[in-house]
Amino acid sequence: EVQLVESVGAWVQAGGSLRLACAASGFPFDEYAIGWFRQAPGKEREVVSCISESDGSTTYGDSVKGRFTISSDNAKSTVYLQMNSLKPEDTAVYYCAAREIFLGYYNGPSYPCFPKSDYDYWGQGTQVTVSS
Length: 132
Description:
By secondary structure, this protein is mainly beta. Helix content is about 0%, strand content about 50%.
């Protein structure tokens, strides 16, 4: 059974830090790209950060560059999102998602991120609330 399980979110004060984890199982982790997305009330789901498990490529959304860091532990099939200098506008439900990578093929301009509709698996989401 395929599973993506996000760690429990938290209520954090502005300026604080939080690390989210996404534990994957049921698929070959090193053949996938993992993305973190977030969705605030009334807004569309947006990309936060992505990492390719096959070549280690990473990318970040403009709003989190310099504050968030994505990393992975292949031995644990887990991807982490370290969030520093949190702002109230970071408040959202955070989701991780997995998308198979096809080596030797062009993976698009946003690699290792992909359009939301391209992802094969999604986690259930976890709430992060940042208070001012």
